[in-house]
Every structure is written in C-alpha cells, then in structure tokens.
Amino acid sequence: MEGLASVHDLQALSALLSPNNEDEEEDLQPLARMGPGHIGSPAAPSGKNNKEGSTAYVKKYSKNIWDEDEVTEGAHFDDLTDPRPQPEYEIVLKQSVGTEDLFLGLSRKDPSSMCCDSMLVRVKLPDTKASDLVLDVRETFLDLRTPKYKLGLHLPHPVHKQEGNARFIVEREELEITLPMNRPMDCINLT
C-alpha cells in the first residue's frame, strides 16, 4: 500500500471510484463495450506486412509444430497398440546416512526428499528370466521391456544414467534398479 501514500494518488483513486462529472461518465461508456479480444497490444493493421512475429518467441522453422524441448523424454517409446501389461512397480528415495547424521545431525540432512541422493525402482516381473530383460535408462525416463511386460516410466527426478546399477532377484521375481539422482544443487543439498 505504499503506492497510495500520496494525496494525489488518493484523489485519483477517488475520482476513478466515484466520477463526479457527466463527461467522465461518457468517457467510461466505450470501456463497457470492450470484450476479451481487446486485452493486450492492438493488432497490426491488415494493410501492412508484419515481418516480425507478434510474440517474443519466434520458431526457427515455421513448419515445425513444436520444438524438441517441448516433447517429454521417452514419448517415442509409447506404443498404444502394444497389448503387454504394465508390471507393478514402486519408487523409493534413498539417503546415505552415517552415525554422525543419525545421532548428531552434523551434516544437516533431514528426512525430506531434498536430501536423498539416489532412487530405487523395484519392478515385480513374475514368470520372467533375467536374460529376457531389456532395460534403457535415460535422464528422466526408464524403459523396461520383457516378452510379457512393458514399462515406460517417467522418473520423478533426473538421474545419472551411466552410474546406476540393476539386479534381478530370482526368489522374489523382482528387478531392483538403483539410480543416483542428478540435482543441480547437490553440493549445497548434500553437504
């Protein structure tokens, strides 16, 4: 409310809220006839050739419908005609903590997801052998294919795709994929 501190500003606001003259009421009449199309900058005259775009964003190639940045990673793996079901899975965020973290709180870690350093993806794959698995991990997408199942999973956080590991547990018929998370502020969050 600091902008309305001067007397001039208060008088201007008073004049807007309660017009005293009939001239001012006549000036307000055209504003009442305005619609949603009148919002924003006025359109360029139709007679002139406007070579610049009307927005600040101008696409490089005018025939492209969207940019590559606008398409989410892993969209090319989606196949709606594939009848294979999606297996059950769960995502667990993990922290590396020691006794100094647990008892003394020296590293400022807390139980929040901001202090997690890796993610564990558990996928239940009944009647599947380890040799049948095809796994592709991207920064924000995980693609897992078997003869019976198909899983295209958009990861909740970016990961280091080259540093992860996976193991198939035969007794539980479960694949465990551990992926270290890639966070831009890791040096601040994890110290």
From TrEMBL:
Q: Which GO terms describe its molecular function?
A: dynein intermediate chain binding; protein-folding chaperone binding
What cellular-component terms does GO give this entry? cytoplasm
Q: Which GO terms describe its biological process?
A: axonemal dynein complex assembly; flagellated sperm motility
Residues of the PIH1D1/2/3 CS-like domain: 86-181
Q: Which InterPro entries match?
A: DNAAF6, PIH1D1/2/3_CS-like
Record-linked Pfam families: PIH1_CS (PF18201)
Region Disordered, residue ranges: 15-54
Q: Which PANTHER family match?
A: DYNEIN AXONEMAL ASSEMBLY FACTOR 6, TWISTER
**Which protein family is it in?**
Belongs to the PIH1 family.
Provide the protein name: Protein PIH1D3-like
Q: Which organism is it from?
A: Sinocyclocheilus anshuiensis
Q: Which gene encodes it?
A: dnaaf6
